[in-house]
Amino acid sequence: MAECSAEGRGSAEDGSTIGADLREFAHRWAVPGEFAAYVDRLRSQALEDSPRPDGHVPSTTLWWIQDDDYLGCLAIRHRLTPHLREIGGHIGYSVRRRGHATAMLRAALPVANQLDIESALVTCDVDNVASRKVIESNGGVFEDQRSGKARFWVPTA
Q: Could you tell me the pTM of the whole model?
């Protein structure tokens, strides 16, 4: 996470999950107990009855790790709100090292299937060719463009 901060992540303009986590928790992560509490909070977000901000749904967070390197994360949202149906989708991912996004999304699909998501909505910026290729290589079928996002349905089974 220090690397993410050094890259400028976590600013007020960073609307990503990592950005929000950096703003809220980064100053406490060096303390082992505080980092464990952060992980517990992430894990609790998968539970239906956990407190969460208005408009947020239960979500499962997966980290992509290789040896001691954090390579990225995925958020699998258990259901769609009108906003997520328009822009965010079921699965969002953030990749720190190139070449891992396709495998990350592929690994997330069976987890989504276990959450009874038969076809996951995955979106990307209309001009993000690399992300579009990741989605399509995982079976994503283009539906349409809305609000600057290309929307794809990806089978989870």
A: 0.88
